Amino acid sequence: MYKWLLFGHLLGVGLLLAGLGAHTVSVERLRHVRSTSESAALMETAELGGRLILVGGPLLIAAGLTMAIRSWSLTDGWIATSIALVVGQGVLGSVVNHRLHRLRSALGASKGEDPGGNAFSLGADSVLHAGNHVSPLVIAEILFLMSVKPTGWGILWSIVVMAVLAGLAVWLGSPRTTPTSRVADN
Asked: Which pTM was predicted?
C-alpha cells in the first residue's frame, strides 16, 4: 500500500509543479504585456496551470496525509511544519487567485475596447507578483522537509533560510520603474 500512496503523492507533486510552473511564468509575464490579446492568452495559460494545481494538490495532500498517519506521526516536526506550509501556500494561492480574478474581470468587461490603465496596472500588481515569487520557495521548502526530514534546529534553520530567500525574491522581483506606455489592440 505504501508504494501506491507514494506514487499518488509524487504524481500529485508532479501535477502541482507543472501547474505552478505554467501559472508562475504566465503571471510573471503579465507585467510586460502590451495588448489585451496577450493578457488574455496569458490568463488562459495561468488558468490551465491553476487547474493542474487543483488536481495535483488534493492528490498529494490525501496521499501524503495517509502516508504520514500510517508510517510516521502528524506530530513529527517535519510533517507538522510541512502541513503548516501547505496551509500557508493555500492561503497565498487564494490571495493570488483573487487578484487574478480582478484582472480577468477587468479584461472581460473591456472586450473589444481599450481596457485602459486599470487592467494593465492589475497585471503589474505587486501583491500578485510577490505571491508568485514566494510560492516556488514555499514548495521548495516543503520538498526539502519531505526529503531530508530534519528535526528541531534543522527545521528552524530551513524555515529561516526560506524566509530570507522569499524576502529577497519579493524585493528583487518588485518593479523598479513604472511600466511604459502600452498599446491595447481590439
From this structure: 0.78
